[in-house]
């Protein structure tokens, strides 16, 4: 179980040919190859970015302090629409 014999590979190739057709196989193989190339490039770039983050010493980057601004204020006044005036 789990071992691929040459007969299994032959059956897989025949199924792929039946699904895609012999004329479309080169196009499919080319697009799969391009996709793998892009995927490998992205993985390599992510690894390089991670290595750069690890190698950078703490404190050399921009400060991570949050300074509150006027847009950070929370309006605590009640909304008149949510509490209609009482009439007695």
TrEMBL record:
Residues 45-88 are annotated as: Disordered. GO terms for molecular function: protein transmembrane transporter activity. InterPro entries: TatA/B/E (IPR003369), TatA/E (IPR006312). GO terms for biological process: protein transport by the Tat complex. Its main location: membrane. It is found in: Cell membrane. It is a single-pass membrane protein. GO terms for cellular component: TAT protein transport complex. Keywords: Cell membrane, Membrane, Protein transport, Translocation, Transmembrane, Transmembrane helix, Transport. The keyword DNA damage does not apply. NCBIfam families: PRK00575.1, tatAE. PANTHER family: SEC-INDEPENDENT PROTEIN TRANSLOCASE PROTEIN TATA. Belongs to the TatA/E family. This is Sec-independent protein translocase protein TatA.
